[in-house]
Every structure is written in structure tokens, then in C-alpha cells.
């Protein structure tokens, strides 16, 4: 793959709207997790809820697309001058030449949950529109109309790797000539299905998640939305780039990772090979780091097997929660922030690192020398994706 320039990027998480809020939270070591207060969820856990999401108003012309997921998409799109950047790209390229590739795991399912609570005489309420909310293309459909795009559009749903794999789909479409540039990203919003589903798997933590900790007890579910505008890079391109992408599908189990992390290691190795660098060239690994016992162990084995025990690594789930289908784009944005600020964030909430895990987990932030960042996103069923990010001409 040829490197892809990241012309604009943004993320909205439990830390606030836009990347400045995300960066402040990382620097201040201030978590966005709160005790679960999501409507209808009677669970003893912590969540990463985006404040004010329920009050977001969609443009009048797109009112039919109302659902929590599209409200979160709207809030995220309006940050960091992202819409202006897309408008400028649309002026340079025809709308038909801008692709759209977005990830989500549950789309607008919260609206369907509400509709079924209001069912009467075996009929769903008249206000409910599956097409504009829960359908997996609803997210792409909304964003496509909101940004005035008319190129290839695709929703990817591979659980927690969804919005990392969008970079791969966009890269292939650009390389094949289907589009000149692309908007990529992902949005996943809180819903009862996800909260109770992970609870049934005994995977949610009763306290803020503690990745790599000896006493870790599960994930903290979050919600987020993020986007990036990407296109081919050249030698003069400065700023963050996607230098390599690696994917794998280990298909070990429907939910559990392959215990030795073989699929995860393959995705990371392919990202390095794609960029034409070796493991020693990576200065920081943003771990998938969910804080479940099985996932952390498998990823640790993959990291140590490929990088050894010296490469700094951390999980940022303690700030945002595990944002599932949006995790890939959120952590790619964190990777860009790490490059731009020459900063490796620590792992939040971890008190005592599990002695059986051997990678160099950061419990304190580390500055300086950040030239290349590897960002991991691993989904159910072994659907894995790793992104290698660098700073292009600046370095």
C-alpha cells in the first residue's frame, strides 16, 4: 500500500467533543468513565458516555435519520473543522470521487429497542424507521447526505476492529481508482443490547477498567464517533500518515481471542511489512487493551513475540471505555496525537501489572522520540487490524 496522508481528523468521546478534549484528558490523566447511568440499564458498571449526545439536533432536512448513533455522528462531524475540510476536498474533487467508509457494531439499535418497548397491537410505532436508524447503512446514509458525498460508500461491521478496517477498504478503493480521497471513521453509541450482552458474557467490570492489571475484571463500555479525511501522500506531505495496514482473520472462536495471539501478531506483522519497516522502528504501540483476562493475555503474547519486551505500549481504554465499533478510529486519532505531541500516554487505572504479562506497559507517560505508532484493533471472531502511523515529511 502507498502511504495515505491524513488531511483532517477528529474524535468525540466521553472526554468531550473534539480532539482537544481528548488530548487534555490524556495529558491530565482524567478519565471520562462514570458509574452507569444509561437509561434502562440497571448494571453495576462504569461507562464512557458522551455528554449532551441526547440533545444534539440533526439538520432539518435530515430529521428522518434521528437516532442516538446519528446524533453522535453529527456531534463528531462538527468538531475540529472537519466539515470545512471535506467541503474543501469536495471543491477539488467531484463528490463522486470522494469515498465514504465507516465502521459500527450496533448502528442505531437503541432506537429499535425503544420501538419494541412501545409496540402495541403487534405493530411497531409509526415513528420507527429501521432504514434510517438501525440498518447498518444508516450511518453511511446519514453522513453521506450530511457531507454531500456521492462516491463509493460502505459500512463495515467487524465488531471492535470495524473502524480500523475502514482504512484498509479506503486504501484499496483509492488504489483501484474508485475514488481519489476518502472519509473514514466510525460511530458506536450506547445501547442496552451491548451493555446487557457483554454482561451476559461476564465481561463487564464493576469498576473502571484496569488493562494489564493483575486484578483486571473486564471492560468498561463506551461510545464515540470519529472521522478522518485521507488521500494519497507524496514526499512533501507533512502531518500524520497511514504508512502501513495489516489485517488477519484467525477465526479461533466466536468471542474469545486465539490464546497465543497468533492472529493479532499476523496483523501487526503485515502492517510492518506493508510499511517496509521492522519491529525495531516502532516507538509506541497503542494496545487494543480491553482489560479482559483473555484479551490482554493474548495481545501481550503477540506483542512480546513480535517486539520483545522493550517497546513502550499502553492501553487508552481507561479514558474512553471500550468504544467497540468506534475503537479503531478513536485509537488512530490517539496515535496521531501521540505523533504530533511526541507523547506516549500511560495506562490509566492500572495499579499492579499482572506478573505473567511481559510487554513494556507504560503506567507513566513517556515523551520524546515518537516517530512511528502502531495502533491495534481486534474484533470478535478474530477479525484483526493494525495501523502503522508516522509523520511523513516532518521526520
Sheet with the most strands, sense and barrel status: 12 strands, mixed
Alpha carbon gap, first and last residue:
20 Å
What is the strand tally?
17
In CATH terms, what is the fold-level topology?
Peroxisomal Thiolase, Chain A, domain 1
What spatial form do the alpha-carbon principal axes imply?
Answer: globular
Uncertain spans: none
| Class from helix and strand fractions | alpha/beta
Indicate the radius of gyration in whole angstroms.
Answer: 20 Å
The fraction of residues assigned to DSSP E strands is: 15-25%
- The H/E string reads EEHEEHHEHHEHEHEEEHEHEHHEEEEE
Annotated CATH homologous superfamily: Thiolase/Chalcone synthase
Number of domains: 1
Top CATH class: Alpha Beta
CATH arch. level architecture: 3-Layer(aba) Sandwich
Continuous helix count? 11
Helix content: 25-40%
The overall pLDDT, averaged over residues, is: 96
Characterization of this structure:
Helices cover 31% and strands 22% of the residues. Strand 11, helix 9 and strand 12 (312-314) form a beta-alpha-beta unit. The mean pLDDT is 96. It has helices at residues 19-28, 68-77, 82-92, 109-117, 138-147, 162-175, 192-200, 262-275, 293-307, 317-320, 327-341; strands at 4-13, 16-17, 34-35, 46-48, 98-103, 153-156, 181-188, 221-222, 224-232, 238-249, 284-286, 312-314, 343-344, 360-361, 366-367, 372-379, 383-392. It contains 11 helices and 17 strands. It is globular. The protein has one domain (4-392): 3-Layer(aba) Sandwich (Peroxisomal Thiolase, Chain A, domain 1). With 395 residues, it is α/β, with parallel strands linked by helices. The longest helix is centred in the last third of the chain and has 15 residues, at 293-307. Helix 2 runs parallel beside helix 5 (138-147) and helix 6 (162-175) packs across helix 11 (327-341). The strands form 3 sheets. Strands 1, 2, 5, 6, 7, 9, 10, 11, 12, 14, 16 and 17 form a 12-stranded mixed sheet that branches.
Amino acid at each position: 500500500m502507498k502511504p495515505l496522508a491524513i488531511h483532517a481528523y477528529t474524535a468525540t468521546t466521553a472526554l468531550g467533543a473534539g480532539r482537544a478534549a481528548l488530548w487534555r484528558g490524556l495529558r491530565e490523566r482524567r478519565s471520562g468513565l462514570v458509574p452507569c447511568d444509561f437509561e434502562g440499564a440497571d448494571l453495576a458498571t462504569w461507562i464512557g458516555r458522551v455528554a449532551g449526545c441526547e440533545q444534539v439536533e440533526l439538520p432539518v432536512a435530515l430529521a428522518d435519520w434521528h437516532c442516538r448513533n446519528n446524533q453522535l455522528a453529527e456531534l463528531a462531524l462538527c468538531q475540529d473543522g472537519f466539515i470545512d475540510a471535506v467541503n474543501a476536498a469536495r471543491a477539488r474533487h467531484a463528490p463522486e470521487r470522494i469515498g465514504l467508509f465507516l465502521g459500527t457494531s450496533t448502528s442505531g439499535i437503541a432506537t429499535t429497542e425503544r420501538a419494541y418497548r412501545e409496540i402495541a397491537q403487534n405493530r411497531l410505532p409509526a415513528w420507527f424507521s429501521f432504514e434510517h436508524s438501525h440498518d447498518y447503512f444508516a450511518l453511511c446514509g446519514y453522513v453521506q447526505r450530511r457531507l454531500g458525498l456521492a462516491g463509493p460508500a460502505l459500512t463495515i461491521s467487524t465488531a471492535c476492529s470495524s473502524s480500523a478496517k475502514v482504512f484498509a477498504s479506503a486504501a484499496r478503493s483509492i488504489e483501484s481508482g474508485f475514488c481519489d480521497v476518502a472519509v473514514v471513521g466510525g460511530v458506536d453509541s450506547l445501547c442496552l443490547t451491548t451493555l446487557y450482552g457483554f454482561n451476559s458474557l461476564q465481561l463487564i467490570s464493576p469498576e473502571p477498567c484496569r488493562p494489564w492489571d493483575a486484578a483486571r475484571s473486564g471492560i468498561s463500555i463506551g461510545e464515540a464517533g470519529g472521522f478522518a479525511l485521507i488521500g494519497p501522500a507524496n514526499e512533501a506531505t507533512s502531518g500524520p500518515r497511514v504508512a502501513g495496514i495489516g489485517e488477519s482473520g484467525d477465526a479461533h472462536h466466536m468471542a474469545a481471542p486465539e490464546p497465543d495471539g497468533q492472529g493479532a501478531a499476523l496483523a501487526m506483522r503485515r502492517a510492518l511489512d506493508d510499511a517496509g519497516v521492522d519491529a525495531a522502528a516502532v516507538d509506541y504501540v497503542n494496545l487494543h487493551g480491553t482489560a479482559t483476562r483473555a484479551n490482554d493475555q493474548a495481545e501481550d503474547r503477540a506483542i512480546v513475540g513480535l517486539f520483545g519486551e522493550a517497546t513502550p505500549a499502553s492501553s487508552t481504554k481507561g479514558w474512553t471505555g471500550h468504544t467497540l465499533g468506534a475503537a479503531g478510529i478513536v485509537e488512530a486519532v490517539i496515535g496521531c496525537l501521540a505523533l504530533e505531541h511526541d507523547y506516549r500516554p500511560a495506562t490509566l487505572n492500572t495499579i499492579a501489572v499482572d506478573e505473567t504479562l511481559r510487554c513494556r506497559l507504560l503506567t507513566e507517560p513517556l515523551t520524546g522520540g515518537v516517530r512511528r505508532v502502531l495502533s491495534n484493533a481486534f474484533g470478535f471472531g478474530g477479525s484483526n487490524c493494525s495501523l502503522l502511523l508516522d509523520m511523513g515529511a516532518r521526520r
